[in-house]
Every structure is written in structure tokens, then in C-alpha cells.
Amino acid sequence: MRVIISVILLALLVQPSVSQKETKKNPFNLDVLNFYSSEGTKSRVDVYVEVPFANLEFKRSKEDKSSYSSKFDLNIEVKDQNGLEIYSNISKEEIKTKETGSQYLSQNSQILSRNLFLPHGDYTVKVSIYEQNTKKTSEEERKITVEDYITPPLSISDVMIVSRLNEKGGKTMITPDVSRNVADIDTFYLFYYIYKNNDDEKVNVSCRITDKDNNEVFTSTETIDIFNGIDFQNQVFMSVTTANLGYGNYTVEITAASKNYNTSIKSSFENQSNDFPLPIKDIDLLIDQLQYIAKDDELSFMRDGKTDAEKQKRFIDFWKKKDPSPLTKRNEVMQEYYRRLMIADERFSTSYIKGWKTDMGMVYIIFGQPDNIDRHPYEMDTKPYEIWDYYNLNRQFVFVDNSGFGDYRLVTPIWDTRFRLNY
Prior knowledge:
Elements: H1 9-12, H2 20-23, E1 29-35, E2 42-52, E3 59-60, E4 68-80, E5 85-97, H3 102-107, E6 109-119, E7 121-131, E8 136-146, E9 154-156, E10 160-168, E11 171-176, E12 187-196, E13 202-210, E14 216-225, E15 233-241, E16 248-257, E17 262-271, H4 283-288, H5 296-303, H6 308-322, H7 332-348, H8 359-367, E18 372-376, E19 385-390, E20 395-401, E21 408-410
Antiparallel strand pairs: 1-2, 2-6, 3-4, 4-5, 4-7, 7-8, 9-12, 10-11, 10-12, 12-15, 13-14, 13-16, 16-17, 18-19, 19-20, 20-21
């Protein structure tokens, strides 16, 4: 009989041994977008680089002992389709902060932008960051096509994902979502331009968002006409709520049609969490992995979702309820749970069972790293065994490898509920 234990990782929470730098897929985010320019036969290419504070090494400032700084070189190179370098620039950057707590660092970032003007054609944009404190270089690159927005009678710019809109001095201030990942945003905006170079009076604009299975999840339409300021450049903002979006990749298709002309473009964004050890598409397995923290009725509720999207929503809602700091982007409990689960897979997996399913994996996920491990792998007339001690919890677990193949089992199962820990 297996007893499901609901764990209070928050109470046992320790600073993860895996740092933000180690868990982050990319050290910085890069987005490259193409817009109209008045520079003759050239179009404008906007390069956005977002540097999360958590991925930098901060040192105390020599000038101001109460603040910390991180210095790095930002290098942007552009090559044409023949590999010929046509643009290169290195700038010295510095980020200063008076706070270096993990929560503050994980919630803040610096967005740097550069405007380039390039002839129409295909290019490769390469961005690298050399951090002076760590002597490390990180690189990202994007292949882009610089479009001609002057000649066509109707055209559409690239689509920017905007995380926040603010009005200041009568102007709309935008914050680009450089990562194009909307997982931490309740409402985001699609920002783009319609370029009209014809005599038609109206342009009907429609937006369609589909998931990876081509299911339509969002539609929106609007009309631009001579009475609401139609011009060569027409700025469009479309708001999209994320409440009903499952985790995954999405395609955006924008269509513009006037009386005699039409055109369309495609873009993309994602709704992903870096905290899960598996893609959200593996929702059934992700739910199974909650067995050490979720109650039976909670697991049944998630499993009973009629579609994967419904299961995903219930799964996400489960973790939202466990979030000790719902006003921040981080869910510390969820991050710690999956950190332990991944370590359990790394340390305790055998040729036929994943580490998180083993007895050692279960104990590690529930209670964390033991204070002491007493190993006895090769003693005469004794099967291999280990003793794990948790001094602060006054608990001891004994594991024995009866098969001789590294499958350590608990000598005494966790039957009692006196040590059950709840959120």
C-alpha cells in the first residue's frame, strides 16, 4: 500500500543548489523585428536584447559601496546571405542595483535596443554578450528577411509581442516581451503596422491565433478607414488574454484586405514554463509526478479533464494555489519541487525505473537532501544498504538493495501520518 504524502516544501525550502544561471536555457533573450523606414530603399530592423538580472554576476561598486554593478560588452553583428559582414558594433554596458536578493534578481531585467537600417534582403543577426565579472561569452542569432514596405500596395510589418502598455504625456509607452513567452502575463498585445500604399478607402484587418494542432484559440477583426486616420502607416494593437491558453507554441496570422488588395503574414509566440522538467504536452506524466504533493482527489480532478488543454489548465491552477508569492513571477514551491524531482531522476534512476518513482527518489523529493548518508555497499554477508538521517526532522530512513542491481527499497514504508506536511 502506498501512502500519498502531501509535502510542505515551503517549510523545508532551502536555497536551490542549482542556480538561476544553471537552469536558464538562454543567458539572454533576443528578438529582431522589421519595420518601415523613410531611409529610401532601406527598412528599419529593431534588435531587442533582454538581460535577466538573475543571469548576471553582480559585484559591489567601487564608486558607491551601497550598490552593485555588472558590466558587459554587447556585440551586434549582421551578415548578408553571402556571409559578408555589413554591420558590427560593440558597446560597453553596465547594470546597477542596490538589491541582490534572489527574488529581486529573478523578477528584473534590462532591455537594450538598437535600430539598424538595412537594404531589402536576407541577413543573419548575431548578438553576443561578454560579461566582465565572469569572463564568459554568450551568443544568440536570428535569420531575418528585411522586407520592402514602400513598393507593395498593402503590407504588414513584423509583429511585436508587448507585455505592457502605459500612457505617458499623451504617448503610448510599450514594453516588448523579448522572450516571446507569455507564461507570466495575464494580457499581452500584438503590435504591428499596416502599410497602405493604394487608393482604397478601407482596410479590414483580422488576426487568428492557432495552437500546434491548428485549433483556433483567438480571433479579432477591425477596420481602418479614412474617417479614423488611415494613412500610409497605421499602428495596430490587439489585446490577447492568456487565461484560456494551454502551454505550448502558437502561430499568429495577420491578414489585411482592402477593396483591391490583400496580404498576410505569420508570427509566433509561446506559453511555456521553464520550471517543469517536461514539456506541458506530456501533461499525463506531469500530473503523475504530483503524487508526492497532491491529494488523491486533486489528482483525480486533473486526470479527469476531457482534453489535454483542460488538464493543463487544472494542472496550472493547482500550482497557482501552492504559490507562496502570487504577486511575483516565481513560484518558489513549484521550482523547488521540480528541482528535487530532476535531481531524483539524475541520482536514483535505474535501467528500468525513473528516479522519481523509486523509494530513494520519493524520500528525497519529500524531505530534500539528507543531513547525513551512511553507505554500506560491499559488506560481507550483508546486502547493500544506506541510512539517511534528517536531524532537524528527527527522522531516519534505511534502504536495502535486495536485488543487487541498485534498487534500494525502504525497510520501513512511510505509513504514519504524524509527519505529514501540508501547504
